[in-house]
Design a protein that fits this description.
This protein is mainly beta. The protein has one domain. It contains 2 helices and 21 strands. The chain has a 17-stranded mixed beta sheet that branches. Strand 11 and strand 12 form a beta hairpin. The two termini are 28 Å apart.
Length: 324
Amino acid sequence: MYSLQCVRGLDWCKFMLFYSCFWVHFSCTSELADQPKSEEAGAFITLEPQMTGNTLESILSLYEKNGIVHDSLPKNDVEDANIYSQNNLTYRLGNKIVYRFTYLIDRDTVTVMALLDSLTNYVTGWATVDTVTTNKKVPMEIIELEVLVEPGKLRRYYSTKKYHQTEIKYAYYSREGVFIGDEYTGLIDNEENVWLHPPRSLLLQTLQASPWPFVKVPFAIGHAWNWDPVWHNPKENFEGKIKFWEGPLKNKCAYEFLSKENWIMTDRKTVVECLVGIADCSNRIHDTHLKFWFNPNVGFLKLVFDNIDGSTIILEAIDFDVCD
């Protein structure tokens, strides 16, 4: 389940304080062996997991369905809204990742504009800078992923036993600091795999039919795994920008870890060691593709989606906050 909230202008001073904390330049290098780990280089976040094992082994059990290993809670145990988050090894409660959002058509970057109703300030859809409209247009550039400590909207609709996932929120902002909206969805994180819903509001609904962020142990170059999801149509079609199809869309997705690379956060003198992987999905309409950079202590730092409508969507981390 996901939804957009009413758009409100953020207090500029508060946003700039927030934004300055999160705006960090990333660059990438494959020279893993030559990367200095001295005090001058600052913090070095390795691929070695900082948390291991199931901390709730006596309570939670695991089961596999369609290639994904889920957490399962026995029926006679007391419900806890965060029970499926307490054994997370990567996306722990309170963690945040802030992404820069880029949208490309035919390899050309397109500025994505959120359309605001002139009277209510509600988001009515997406547009480009050339779209003629009487509504206000606000460019979107920042997407923040937050692992919710307090239960959000999903817990109001589903019981804990029926929703075996960690609840997360994606919040959207313009480059000027205007809050555009948010959506609530979930992820699965345990000692066997990490599986993540991508953002899928409005124009981003095209990610419904692309490979989703998904990694399985062992976290090692050459490891490969499969996932065969079945997708249904997006809920809405904004000015013909969302591709539709008839009936269920069956996919065959093949994932693999290909290499290691270091992400260098120059402003913070932090280096994050990443596994780089790909996912290729085939279906009867249009093949899709994902390239991802993943660290088991931070999460997905970069995601490059080649989508069913021919577009490319890039989410590139500009900062993160990892809780103990």
